[in-house]
Amino acid sequence: MTRLWIKQPLDLLCDEDGVTGLVVEGGCISELLTHDKPPAQPCDVTFDAREHVVVPGLVNCHHHFYQTLTRALPAALNQELFSWLKNLYPVWAGLTPSMISLSSELALAELMLSGCTLAADHHYLFPQGLESAIDLQVAAAQKLGIRVVLTRGSMSLGEKDGGLPPQTVVQTEQTILDDSERLIRTHHQTGDGAMVQMALAPCSPFSVTTEIMRASADLAAQYQVGLHTHLAETLDEEAFCLQQFGLRTVDYLDSVNWLRPGTWLAHGIHFNDEEIARLGAAKVGVCHCPCSNMVLASGICRACELEAAGCPVGLGVDGSASNDGSNMVGEVRQAMMLQRLRYGAAAVSHLDAWRWATQGGAAVLGRSDTGRIAAGLQADLALFKMDELRFSGSHEPLAALLLCGAQKADRVMVGGEWTVIDGEIPGLDRHKLMADHWQAARTLADR
Ligand SMILES: Nc1nc2[nH]c(O)nc2c(=O)[nH]1
């Protein structure tokens, strides 16, 4: 087994003090080296990290990969969530299998190049002919070597029953449940080092039936997989829940048996104090999506209070029609800035933002084997260089990466394998991928 010594990084994000290097062996971090001591046993390879800041691989807790095909689409510009969705559903109804492959690969590549090692996606569109969407996402992730949590999304409440989406993009409950079970049985891996995991993800209160929320909770419990949905993203959604169910969002979540560990919510903005306490007590995870929340003017997540109440808190770039990028390290900067706006500069440090993006995200996705630099954990790492104009004159490296606006990782490692080297994904023809993806985006918009 090869032993790799990552030697003397410029700086390192680690809970332990005085760490000046680490050893990677068998896909894991086998040893933390302190105070410039060499490894206990000889290493086969030494990586001189004097120019690198080493952080745990970044964890993206919410995305919609297919939306990379509808970035900055004129019909959806400058709108809030409901009209934005209503304008996009008919476009997304035209997705094809090759568009899913291209958009998944492109979104994953973008995430990886910005330091991501574990990414969750929420795919909830299954028009006819697209039954294999999640299988295609698995193939894209395996090709690129990134860890993924792919959530089987669903929409079952169409316009004719009072929901937001047109009938063309909703499915029957039985179809959803059968496919959910098939995907878990086919792809879900368990245990440390899992590369592909599944979770179940009815889309949002205004696009699914209460029956599919309850049945998904039962199925998730049966197979011990995660549960995911959009919740408390907008005040329109809150009004919908009050009108449709006579309940606020958290009461609605409780009524369908979702208030439990393993559930994580995208956005989680419009909660009152009592709801935050209930979510924290239930250990429900929250994925803060700062860019999307600003683009759609949805509001500001109460991330610090949710975390203090006991909720795991992570970050997500959200879909690329409401961000419209998938840059993970860029999202960490936005989270720090938006949360400062809410709580004040002294209340939110760069270390808080790094924590949400690493160990917080891993906790949201139910992973105890990644998200930190510690002996015995997966060797999932992101290494940033500070050799760009934007960093010149900076002092504290971990603060500078966020304050000066890092955009790209120089190296990324997943389970001991380099997935990014010198700012490129080995074996990926990114120009061809972009050309094909652009073409697919034009075809989709012209349909
Ligand atoms: N930001 C987003 N919110 C959503 N709610 C919903 O039902 N779908 C979406 C989405 O794609 N993005």
Short précis:
This protein is of the alpha/beta class. The protein is built from 14 helices and 17 strands. Ligand LDV2AJBS binds next to helix 1.
> CATH superfamily of the largest domain, please?
Metal-dependent hydrolases
CATH architecture of the largest domain: Alpha-Beta Barrel
Mean pLDDT: 98
CATH topology of the largest domain: TIM Barrel
Instruction: Report the helical percentage.
Output: 25-40%
Question: What does the main sheet amount to?
Answer: 8 strands, parallel
What's the structural domain tally? 2
Strand order of the largest sheet: 7-8-9-10-11-12-13-14
Q: Provide the structure class.
A: alpha/beta
Number of helices: 14
How would you describe what is shown here?
By secondary structure, this protein is an alpha/beta fold. It has two domains: 3-55 and 378-420, Urease, subunit C, domain 1 (Roll), CATH 2.30.40; 58-364, Metal-dependent hydrolases (TIM Barrel, Alpha-Beta Barrel), CATH 3.20.20.140. It is 37% helix and 19% strand. The strands form three sheets. Strands 7-8-9-10-11-12-13-14 form an eight-stranded parallel sheet. A five-stranded mixed sheet has the order 2-6-15-16-17, covered by helices on one side. Strands 4-3-1-5 form a four-stranded mixed sheet, with no helix packed on it. Helix 2 (97-113) packs parallel to helix 3 (133-144), helix 8 (273-281) packs across helix 10 and helix 11 packs across helix 12. The longest helix has 17 residues, at 97-113. The model has no long low-confidence stretch (mean pLDDT 98). The site of ligand LDV2AJBS has 12 residues, from helix 1.
